[in-house]
Amino acid sequence: MQKQPELNLIEGPVGPLEVATLGIASEMISFPQGLLLLHPHPLHGGSMANKIVTTLARIGRDAGIPTFALNFRGVGGSAGAFDHGRGEVDDALAVVRYGCQLGIKEWMLAGFSFGAAIAGRLAPRVEGVGRVIDLLQVAPAVENFPVAIEPLDDIPVGVLFNLDDDVVSPDAMQTYVDHLKPAWTAIHATGGHFYHGELARLKMDVLNYWTSRGLLPNASD
Fold this sequence. Notes:
By secondary structure, the chain is α/β, with parallel strands linked by helices.
């Protein structure tokens, strides 16, 4: 099993995009399902090395799912500058297209904070390129980066957040959940925005959700 991610530069909308992959052993992937992970706010230290992103990446790795993460424009080795959530959707879509060229047909999208909002905006745009089979949003930053509800009607969505979040308004996230009516939620009293001391709980919540949907046939604890 590949333990460490492989880093590559792919062509993005405004220049090279830095992409990390796990579980991609050849130029063409035989497994049709992929996981794309989107990181928190680029101007507040967000990158694909974020601990919540890497926790989700390990779940995908252990399940044998080809897993992709990227640094949004202006982060790490990715060209460009922060585009307030507009160009970042285009960046993520470029990675979807890259994965589809390798053989991915179905996508699990997952993001944390800003990345969770971008995943929600990305999901409807994947149609015609691939197919979204799941959208997971951890502490989605819907207060500053709203996500349209209606385009997500046909996509299974899971939402996680903590009621003591001190970065994104819990009331805003609860209102989003109330309107979205996601397939699954995990709302806890404690853990803050960054799940300090609660990564094991986060991992178990996500494992249980994805396993219940039949998305992780080879998952291990």
